[in-house]
Amino acid sequence: MEDGVDHLAFERNKAQFDVEDMKIIWAGSRQDFELSDRISRLVASDPAFRKDDRTTLDRKELFKNTLRKAAYAWKRINELRLNEQEAYKLRSFVDQPAFTDLHWGMFVPAIQGQGTDEQQQKWLPLAYRMQIIGCYAQTELGHGSNVQGLETTATFDPKTDEFVIHSPTLTSSKWWPGGLGKISTHAVAYARLIIGGEDHGVHGFIVQLRSLDDHLPLPGITIGDIGMKFGNAAYNTMDNGVLRFDHVRIPRNQMLMRVSQVTREGKYVSSNVPRQLVYGTMVNVRQKIVADASVALSRAVCIATRYSAVRRQFGSHNGGLETQVIDYKTQQARLFPLLASAYAFRFVGGWLKWLYMDVTERLQANDFSTLPEAHACTAGLKSLTTTATADGIEECRKLCGGHGYLCSSGLPELFAVYVPACTYEGDNVVLLLQVARHLMKTVSQLGSGNKPVGTTAYMARVEQLMQYHSDVEKAEDWLKPNVVLEAFEARASRMSVACAQNLSKFANPEEGFQELAADLVDAAVAHCQLIVVSKFIEKLQQDIPGKGVKKQLEVLCSIYALFLLHKHLGDFLSTGCINPKQGSLASEQLRNLYSQVRPNAIALVDAFNYTDHYLGSILGRYDGNVYPKLYEEAWKDPLNDSVVPDGFKEYIQPMLKQQLRNARL
Ligand SMILES: CCCCCCCC/C=C\CCCCCCCCCCCCCCCC(=O)SCCNC(=O)CCNC(=O)[C@H](O)C(C)(C)COP(=O)(O)OP(=O)(O)OC[C@H]1O[C@@H](n2cnc3c(N)ncnc32)[C@H](O)[C@@H]1OP(=O)(O)O
Ligand SMILES: Cc1cc2nc3c(=O)[nH]c(=O)nc-3n(C[C@H](O)[C@H](O)[C@H](O)COP(=O)(O)OP(=O)(O)OC[C@H]3O[C@@H](n4cnc5c(N)ncnc54)[C@H](O)[C@@H]3O)c2cc1C
Questions:
Q1: Residues designated as active site
Q2: 428 CA closest ligand 2 atom index
Q3: Active site located where (predicted)?
Q4: CATH number of the domain that residue 180 is part of
Q5: How far is 336 from 315, CA to CA, in rounded Å?
Q6: In-domain check, residue 90
Q7: Is residue 250 part of a domain?
Q8: What's this model's pTM, rounded to 2 decimal places?
Q9: CA 156, 425, 273 angle in degrees (round to 5)?
Q10: Model confidence over 147-158: pLDDT tens digits?
Q11: Mean pLDDT, to the nearest integer, of 211-216?
Q12: Does position 4 have pLDDT exceeding 50, yes or no?
């Protein structure tokens, strides 16, 4: 049996575009590419960042191993004087969730976004030097999605000028915060502010949890890890925690006071900023999660594509080679839309980062006008991309057949570590309902002269879109960006308008919203898919250098859009945007596009520029040398340390002997 090396070299030679130029497009710029390339090699070449043994460690060893890596990473960041972007990349390539994610990803941003200048000056230098380690303690045992339902209380005591933080019920126990369980010294904890018996709703407070001397919990604090989670290693490197407060006192100036303040006299004062800024950290992280979705999906797609070119099954004639499974049309129809989605999410992630930076600058200048749009986009795209990525990783596992189920394929752990992204930072359905509220508000204001802006701007043409019928006559018509865009706009606006019309039949709008929730979620998905398609099309309107690169991206863009059209054909037909014949023409075009991707598939995944260390997959090895390495790896399993396993003599041998004795009787 030959190895796979020649297959992938041959595949690479087939590419019709310059893969080095595509690497730059994927990375965002030459500078980003060089940075990413340098840091990924740095991590891959350092034995301290070895990760192939992770799934064989028990929880305690795994956690200790995470602490060692985190401390070593921090040491290297300082020694090499890495800047913020480089440190972030290093974290990404180390590829192991840790308390540091919450410290840098949520604790620090919460203070930056919700703290006053004075509070920032006090706390941020300590956090930046990691002299304190923080987490984001919002979710409780009883409430996660419903933030307004949180039960922890922060009662102002005017006598001592302190807040008393308390967990009044079991369900008010903080439950889930990452980094809380074993490591964090501090938390930004969310609690109901009570002054003189009056409840002012949920606010953030900086609370010290553990002693900076001996790391023991401070008086009144009960704290621990919530236990093993899904998967072997996966997210078990993280100490998601439980926390109860028993009348814990903190100084008044530890309430984050940018949005509202409590004076020495106990007066509650609201600033001139929307209260939703208390939710600002979540907007920030949702944007990061969207950017990360393309990374996780592209990893899985890279593994499944390379392995599909190495793997052969059936089709041998006269003793010749069997067919590469990537040549089966069904394999292509499952794999290539995921490849296209990885590119689509990459570009929409880049755009969302820009949108987030824009809204942040505006907020600093007290311009809050784009906050609802930023909230709707981050919530909707977080939901859309994480759902598609989690499903896509699982599909990639199936695309790799039996070997995909082995941990050494990298796919089971990738799925297990990724799938909670559908839940954390907002359950995906709950977030789509937020988008739906935004859409219903937009539709209700259409007649009022209030022009829809940003990603809902297409709604301004609602009358025209309600009349729209696609004029596609032949399969190639579906390659025209405007044709695709109009069909997606018409479908999204008609689904929103239909929901708004149905809602208007209810005397109580909230009751209507609950009753129509499933349709509202579908309308939100249609709107979010339109955003992704339109940002991909916008990307293609930019200058894209490199031999054949633009052509490949055009093919991928068409695949992404037509795959969605095919998958949601019911929406497009039932809203009357297209007719059944046009639906069939889209499927015909999709098949042509798959054939165009086929010779370029390996080069398109090479453009992600992942090291073998980062991929962590025998099936996805760059050299395609799968079988010898799989065979070699099996012998490394701890179960193969001895020929006769522990427990055999104790349990199985007596059973066998008994059977033997019975047989002789
Ligand atoms: C081992 C190696 C280590 C290496 C170490 C290296 C060293 C380190 C170096 C560098 C490291 C860098 C690492 C960085 C890594 C960063 C990655 C970060 C990863 C983090 C992982 C994430 C973990 C998960 C964390 C969490 O889950 S935190 C908890 C999140 N919780 C939620 O999301 C709850 C969801 N619920 C809600 O958001 C809300 O409650 C709701 C659903 C929106 C409902 O709110 P409410 O009841 O108030 O409802 P409404 O009435 O519907 O809304 C009122 C109005 O408010 C508007 N609204 C709502 N939300 C927002 C918002 N977020 N922003 C703006 N506006 C909002 C809404 O639209 C309404 O408006 P209106 O005009 O209609 O009134
Ligand atoms: C790995 C992981 C890490 C986490 N890290 C943190 C952290 O660092 N800090 C922190 O504070 N929290 C953290 N969380 C908590 C997380 O943010 C919440 O679990 C998440 O927001 C979902 O909330 P929930 O658990 O209350 O789900 P629920 O809201 O109870 O969801 C249960 C089901 O009910 C449905 N549902 C709920 N409300 C509605 C509605 N209005 N309409 C329709 N359906 C609805 C949901 O769709 C879901 O199917 C983490 C969670 C996980 C899994």
A1: 425
A2: 47
A3: 425
A4: 2.40.110.10
A5: 22
A6: no
A7: yes
A8: 0.97
A9: 50
A10: 999 999 999 999
A11: 98
A12: no
